[in-house]
Amino acid sequence: MNTKLQSVRGTHDHLHKDMYEYNYIVNKVCSISANYGFKQMSTPIFEFSNVFKRTLGESSDIVTKEMYTFKDKGEEEITLRPEGTAGIVRAIISNGLAQEMPFKAFYHGPMFRYERPQKGRLRQFHQVGVELLGVKKEQADIEVIACAKQVLDELNIEKFSKLNINSLGSIDDRQKYVKALVNYLSSYKNKLSKDSLMRLNKNPLRILDSKSEDDISIIKNAPKLSEYLNSFSHENFKNILEGLENLNIKYIINENLVRGLDYYNDTTFEFITDKLGSQSAIIAGGRYDSLMKQMGGADIPGIGWAGGIERLILLSTINEIKRKHISIIPVGEENNNICIDLAHKLRNKNIFSEMSYSGNLKKRLKNANKLSSNFAIIIGTEEVRNNYGLVRNLETGKQKKIKLAEIIEYIEKILL
RNA sequence: GCGGGUGUAGCUCAGUUGGUUAGAGCACCGGUUUGUGGUACCGGGGGUCGCGGGUUCAAAUCUCGUCACUCGCCCCA
Questions:
Q1: At A25, phi and psi to the nearest 5?
Q2: Domain A16-169+229-315: what homologous superfamily?
Q3: pTM of the entire structure?
């Protein structure tokens, strides 16, 4: 194989099959979320770098090492979006939509992260997501999670996934907790894993979901985030869990579920799977009540989730439904035009018609078979002279002479 | 960013201790007489063995580098 011409590392061409699945998933999320009132929107795939730097957290991995950032020809610092929420919130502020609360958006598109590629982890990948802004109450959390659950249900991958949920409390609560956690962990400095030692300064919460066995045993006795929640957060979380139970949505409370992005507070959740190796999250989200204010907008709360489309594709088994169609086969070049004309008329009637372009009749029928056409219309000189076409059923092998004037009507009937 | 594995035709792979024109299946193209497909039979095209160095009389086979994929860590969707 000549590998001189290849796509950039971590990027992938979506050919027909992938696109079919991609669109299937996007359409599913679109129609399901529409039942909750989410309306589609789209934002640019690049933003001023600050949109992400300020919101995701200066110390987060995404900002410090994974962003595609560059200066454009106008010397503006630009970043290819690593996630969707910041752009949506920016767009709401930019367009003065803060007046139209609650605001519910559904979006999909490419995201960019400079990471080490792996199965289910690409540098250009695609997400579908949903954002609900302007509702602080637990109904929003419940609805948003229910929507994600329904998506997984309808994609038939719910059985591979488990909903993990946690509450991070307010940002104040979290800061207090982090202090306590660091304080506790500091006395185990010589036992913590290398990675966790680094995280102790940078992102101590991350130590909670460390996979190192030593770390896990230390964490067992660490202070719990749940003990630091204020009464509102505590009550809120309880209500959300009750709400989920009412809807029969099973969940696992995972006290170690923390998010990599700074803007989250209170509810955080992930639908995780064990089918994708170390890429376990398929849909993840949470509440971000301070994000908009932090970006310079109004003080409006929000909650949302995003799902990785490539990961969803890997888990789902989507069978393409082939559209019924016919192949139109001229026999003899002199009959091309009458066939093109027929194809044109059929297409205008919204009938999927393949033209047979070259070869003798045998080859053309073979080709029609390869295209899995349901019928073939064969028109040669003899047919033209007598004003009919041969309509061949490619499954049964039976064929009929049909008058040219009636052929469109006939096809409409048999394709039903 | 760290550690391991892999890389041979469009696809899935085989290739014995380095040795002559690198193989199979599927796919593709053509044929089995002239206007009839799906099956069968026959034939054909296609690979500088990811790329670049090195060792050797000789390398797809050994070695180094590089690129890509993949697994674990990390991170996350």
A1: -65, -45
A2: Bira Bifunctional Protein; Domain 2 (3.30.930.10)
A3: 0.90
Q: Give the CA A141 to C1' B34 distance in Å.
A: 74
Distance A8 CA to B54 C1' (A): 29
* Residue A167 burial class via C-beta count within 10 angstroms: exposed 0-12, middle 13-18, buried 19 and up: buried
CB atoms within 10 A of CB A48: 13
Q: How far is CA A208 from CA A178, A180, A199, A251, in A?
A: 11, 13, 10, 19
Q: Where do the domains of chain A lie?
A: 16-169+229-315, 326-414
Q: How does residue A354 score in pLDDT terms, banded at 50, 70 and 90?
A: very high
Q: Which nucleotides of B are covered by protein (CB under 7 A)?
A: 1-2, 7-11, 28, 30-31, 35-38, 48, 50-51, 67-77
Please answer whether residues A256 and A208 qualify as being in contact, where contact means their C-beta atoms are separated by less than 8 angstroms. yes
Which ranges constitute the DSSP H helices of A187-335?
194-202, 213-220, 231-246, 291-294, 309-315
Q: What's chain A's Rg over C-alpha atoms?
A: 28
Output the six-digit token pair for A308: 């990785």
- What pLDDT sits at residue A196? 80
Give the Å distances, CA to CA, from A97 to A133, A139, A142, A301. 10, 21, 24, 14
Which has the closest alpha carbon to A18: A8, A30, A7, A26? Answer: A26
Burial of residue A145, with CB atoms counted within 10 A of its CB: 0-12 exposed, 13-18 middle, 19 or more buried: buried
Instruction: Give the CA A1 to C1' B61 distance in Å.
Output: 18
A126: which nucleotide lies closest, measuring CA to C1'?
B77
pLDDT in tens, A23-80: 999 999 999 999 999 999 999 999 999 899 888 776 677 777 888 998 999 999 999 9
Average pLDDT of the residues of chain A: 89
Tell the CATH superfamily of the A326-414 domain. Answer: Anticodon-binding domain (3.40.50.800)
